[in-house]
Amino acid sequence: MPSEKEFEEQENKFFALRDTLMKEADKRGITMRILGALAFRTHCPSFKHYEYRAGRLLSDIDFAAYSKEKRKIEEMFIALGYEIDKHAKFLFQGKRYIFYNPQGIHSDIFFDKLEMCHDVNFAGRLEIDYPTISLSDLFFEKVQIVQINEKDLIDTAILFREHAVGPGDKETINSDYISTILSNDWGFWKTTTINLEKISQYVKTADFIEELDKKDIIEKIQLLSKIIDDKPKPFSWKMRARIGEKRKWYRDVEEFER
């Protein structure tokens, strides 16, 4: 495993790339926000060292953006020396662009929503935070994954450790917004509640996480779980809950081969 210094050196290169792209987007009047692994490193400075201990290296820099700015975004990346993946542009029907820089680092741009196992809607939400998507959307980005893996578990764990759970978005995982979304989508609720339990179990057994930090993360997960459970559910949600797992509640996602 790389040393902490090597992790920091790699991270600094990605931070420099992040800053270059965000500065150029701002200059061109483009609303673009970071998601994925780099967003968690950006928003969790006090506890990102757990990413190092888990052996979590960075590989790309991904963004959420508005489809109305597609042309400006493509022009920006091309001007910065990136090459667009034309196959991906066709395959995803313009809902997602992929660019490669001369060093081979790729950037996925998701327009208006993240369409994976469940949808994470960005409409009107990219202005909430900077330079990343909101904490609640970072949370949703991970817990919507049915086949959640270790890197997603550690990302979500440090998100909880770094931030409070409660109403509002300012350095807070917005429990009001999360519970409202899940109270109107049984399938998303189902996947999220399963994954919250997986995160808790992962944290409990992760020997590289300090005991006080484990306690903090698990208490916040329990708090959010209670708020989600206590949120009143409409009749349509209850009817879907009665069907339960007899009908598939998520979308299968195939990994794009680069």
Could you explain how this protein is built, in words?
By secondary structure, this protein is an alpha/beta fold. The protein has one domain (4-246). It is built from eleven helices and nine strands. The chain has helices at 4-27, 37-43, 49-53, 70-79, 86-91, 135-143, 150-162, 175-183, 186-205, 211-230, 235-243, and strands spanning 32-35, 62-65, 83-84, 96-100, 106-111, 113-115, 119-121, 164-166, 172-174. The strands form three sheets. The chain has a five-stranded mixed β-sheet with strand order 1-2-5-4-3. It has a two-stranded antiparallel sheet with strand order 6-7. β4 (96-100) and β5 (106-111) form a beta hairpin. The longest helix is centred in the N-terminal third of the chain and has 24 residues, at 4-27. The mean pLDDT is 96.
